[in-house]
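Worked problem 6 (solution included).
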Amino acid sequence: MFSELRMSKKLKELVCRELEEHYRDLESCVLVDYQGVDGRTMTGVRAQLRERNVSMRVVKNSLAVLALRNVGKGSVAEMLDGPCALMTSATDPVELVKAVADAAREIEALEIKGGLIEGERLDGGQIVQLSKIPSRDVLNAQIAGVFAAPMVQLAGVLQAIARAMAYGFAAYRDKLAESEEGSGEGE
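Solution. The predicted structure is:
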């Protein structure tokens, strides 16, 4: 019944223009094959993704291909085959792939087909590998730790030197005090 419904040419043009606007500045996206996932599960996936600032769009492939090609994203358009959802995020692209990979791990029927990350086309396997990289915040903390470690070690060494000098001066002071007491008793 639904396959018999057809969009009018005017409606297709409007949808295509809207998609072009959405895809124009697209630097990162992930395509997922959702065949075999029921509607209730897809609603749950959308909600989970929305919590992580990821939007999911399902549109007719021919319209998506046309819109993507019109905005110079033909490499993504080539991956559109069969039932596909295109997921995008305005945040960190690594967070996008992590959110999509988490959803795909949770729902086996979701298959990551590939995507565009910072303008570079990646296949599904590369997207999964990218999802295993720590987040930007974790990487920043690790880098800060790497830079801080030598400074902490230097501070420890300087503190040890200062402590050793203080012990040496205290021992010298005590020795001087003893020698003064010893020379003062002999008179």
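Discussion: The chain has seven helices and five strands.
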